[in-house]
Write the structure tokens for this entry.
Amino acid sequence: MNDMPRETIVQGLDLLDIVSYISRKNKKFQAIVLSEVEEVLDKDSQEYQLIRKIILDNFNNYTRSVVRTIFGDIEFLIK
């Protein structure tokens, strides 16, 4: 198998639209997971606050790594 990286160009898709879509999906999945956690833990509890922070941090880190892997370092475009 060839170990050289391949470049694929997706024509007709706007980079910012794709990143925006990924971001919206990320926020949706975060909301779903946090909603399920809220069914088990009180929102004011320390455990919930810690779990919420862990979930949000890791979802955001994962999403950022996916975007960076696909498009390179483009965070300067979204800020």
